[in-house]
Design goal:
By secondary structure, the chain is of the alpha/beta class. The protein has 14 helices and 18 strands.
Length: 428
């Protein structure tokens, strides 16, 4: 298990992790905290059954859990040839047994869940973990918690619950509450915030949880250790930007490691039009997010083909957030239409032989945009983070079960509404 301390990114304050710390108790301004690991050089375990725990040196975990999975990196041939690239590396998270990828939820959100749940200490294990999600994160946490008997309450917009499919019925320790049809991810986050004010519930923490970010950073760990160097460019579609922040943090650790070069991969991230709040802020060179009417945001979120990318309150502005990551790496944000994403999604399946999610299609479409405007060159070392895929392949060979909500909250719910429902629900 990786031994570490915590650092306040804003001021460099180093302190000990005394359990489930999400913020620096002495901090005076909004900032992420970052794990500083004792082991500066990453030792990758060779035991394939460890899944992402083979990177345990750089994970803030207390234990390992059952059935772990891991991202798989390979050098693309057919897609790379089609795009005119000589060094395109795909990091694939999903279900593709042919290459050794066996995430049964078909999403890289499993990397978060296996890390976050393994960070739970004895003090937290009697509490109910609360996770807000637009879909894929909920599916990943539900699978991991069900397999390992961890109490979990999911908060998801009702319009997204079709994403909560599984290959077997879930353990009753996993429960789901939703916000009514027409709501969005921000409404689900607000619901989870109210729940976490009640006794017995534990906020997972989102981007503020070092275990979530460092779990997601296993995509970059997979790529760098496979390629043998830090890539020149990193492409990923983003809703919150947490995965890109995680990649940046892993990159900094690899520079300190000393064996993989000293460059910083340029983060080229993308959003799905018309829901592009971070793109708009970045184009305005604004650290602060720009005003975004709630009703317009819900409307825009309903129009995009990748609803998992619809986060109205991302960790963009605070110290150590996406704005800082983009500035430090000389990165950029792209805006991708549904048509571009669908075309890229189809292109990946045609060339590489596996279906991918719309969010991954957004990432590939941004790579195509970057090629067309000469932001990348044919010999550049490029990491394409395919954050989910293989669902069609998985469903062809597995019986599917869906998780039904225990309660649906109307838009405009209050803290009192949540308290009344949860008191009754958790007694069942």
């Amino acid at each position: 298990m990786g031994k570490y301390q915590l650092m306040n990114v804003a001021d460099g304050h180093i302190f000990e992790d005394k359990g489930w710390i999400l913020d620096d108790p002495q901090g005076t301004s909004p900032s992420l905290v970052r794990a500083i690991y004792d082991k500066k050089q990453l030792h990758v375990a060779e035991d394939g059954s460890l899944g992402l725990y083979k990177f345990a040196d750089w994970l803030p975990i207390q234990r390992t859990l059952e059935h772990p999975s891991c991202p798989v990196t390979y050098k693309s041939e057919k897609l790379a040839k089609h795009l005119g690239l000589n060094n395109l590396y795909v990091t694939f998270s999903g279900w593709w047994p042919k290459i050794g990828a066996k995430m049964s939820t078909c999403s890289f959100k499993e990397t978060e869940a296996y890390s976050v749940c393994a960070r739970l200490g004895k003090e937290q294990q009697d509490q109910v973990l609360v996770v807000a999600s637009a879909g894929n994160t909920a599916r990943a946490f539900a699978k991991v918690c069900s397999d390992n008997g961890i109490k979990l309450l999911l908060c998801v917009p009702q319009d997204n619950i079709k994403a909560l499919w599984f290959d077997k019925p879930l353990n009753p320790c996993v429960k789901l509450i939703t916000t009514a049809s027409g709501s969005d991810y921000f409404d689900a986050i607000q619901l989870s915030n109210y729940v976490c004010e009640l006794p017995g519930f534990l906020a997972e923490g989102g981007a503020k949880n070092i275990a979530r970010r460092d779990g997601m950073s296993t995509t970059m760990m997979s790529a760098v250790t496979f390629i043998g160097q830090i890539p020149d460019y990193y492409f990923q579609a983003v809703g919150s930007g947490t995965g890109a922040i995680a990649a940046w943090e892993a990159n900094l650790r690899f520079i300190e490691d000393g064996r993989f070069g000293d460059k910083k991969a340029k983060l080229y991230v993308s959003q799905n039009k018309p829901f592009v709040p971070m793109y708009d802020a970045w184009r305005a060179d604004s650290r602060a997010m720009l005003p975004y009417d709630a009703d317009q945001a819900r409307k825009d979120a309903a129009e995009i083909c990748a609803p998992v990318l619809s986060n109205r309150k991302p960790p963009y502005s605070l110290a150590g957030g996406l704005y800082d990551a983009l500035k430090d790496t000389q990165g950029d944000i792209f805006a991708v239409s549904n048509e571009e994403a669908n075309a890229a999604k189809n292109l990946f399946e045609e060339t590489e032989g596996i279906d991918i999610y719309h969010a991954a299609g957004v990432a590939l479409a941004s790579l195509i945009q970057a090629i067309n405007i000469n932001k990348v060159q044919s010999d550049d070392v490029i990491m394409l983070n395919i954050t989910g895929g293989g669902e069609k392949h998985f469903m062809e060979t597995h019986e599917i079960h869906y998780l039904e909500p225990s309660h649906i909250f109307p838009i405009g719910f209050t803290k009192e509404d949540v308290g009344k429902v949860l008191n009754g629900l958790m007694k069942k």
